[in-house]
Amino acid sequence: MKSKLKLRLAIIFVAVSTQILVGQQRLLVVGGGTRPPDAVKKFVEWSGGAKARILIITWASGVPEESFESLKKGFSTFNPGMIEHAAIRPFDAEKRAKFVDQLKTATGVFFSGGDQNRIMDVLDDEELLKLIRAIYAAGTPFGGTSAGAAVMSDPMMTGDADLKILDGGKVGTRKGLGLIANVMFDQHFLVRQRHNRLFGFIMQNPKYLGVGIDEDTAVLIEDNRRLTVAGRTQVMFIDLKKESNAMLVYVLKGGESFDLKTRKSK
């Protein structure tokens, strides 16, 4: 059974990979709290509107059914064609095969909040991780809130940190999805005063752009470059210029834009 499933995954991975060059990458990252309606609406549009098939992954949650129903209610406001609950953890061969089928047919994928470590515990399965990355690269929109936002980076923050000091060595990290290279997302950013965590990480890892997203706020990213803020509070961008040892900080509100390639607000 396991060898057959591996062969099946390999075939799907190759099929998806052939589309990578023509895919348009689109990502919704929500800082937690209330999901901005205009951002959710845009995600549904990206996913196909009335023909959308949105797959909600609740692996991060300790109450997956409740998390699914809450997210389903929010997405249903904008009338997508279908909202499906991904196979829940822990995986056996049957659940794993079901998830692969769901992922293959989804036109939008969204991760719930909870504990991001639970997501990556499932994706310790390298074949599934590669498949998710390939499907995103091929053009299927992805999104996540809270823990589902943190997991978009690689490495991602685990949640461990000493918020009283600026020390990147005290910031816990592990492998994440890494859907956008060299960007570190942090969530619940202003309300939980996580500035030191993100500043510390960037000081130790200057090639990364820090993106701290507050609650009730989100960023919509197209082609891994064009970012627009949505929601009622702010998003902070932290860019350390290693050559001059200068740190640039941008704070953007809803409707404002940022270029992830040039690292400048627009």
Describe it for me?
By secondary structure, the protein is of the alpha/beta class. It has one domain: Rossmann fold, CATH 3.40.50. 32% of the residues lie in helices and 26% in strands. It contains 8 helices and 15 strands. It has helices spanning 2-17, 37-47, 64-76, 93-105, 116-122, 126-137, 147-150, 195-204, and strands at residues 26-30, 53-57, 82-85, 108-111, 142-145, 156-157, 173-174, 183-186, 209-213, 217-222, 226-231, 234-241, 246-253, 257-259, 264-265. The protein has a 9-stranded mixed sheet, sandwiched between helices. The chain starts with a helix and ends with a strand.
Q: Under the CATH scheme, which class? A: Alpha Beta
Annotation, overall tally of beta strands: 15
pLDDT < 50 stretches = 14-22
Number of domains: 1
CATH superfamily grouping: Class I glutamine amidotransferase (GATase) domain
SS summary, helix count: 8
Please provide a brief summary of the model:
This protein is an alpha/beta fold and 266 residues long. The protein has helices at residues 2-17, 37-47, 64-76, 93-105, 116-122, 126-137, 147-150, 195-204, and strands at 26-30, 53-57, 82-85, 108-111, 142-145, 156-157, 173-174, 183-186, 209-213, 217-222, 226-231, 234-241, 246-253, 257-259, 264-265.
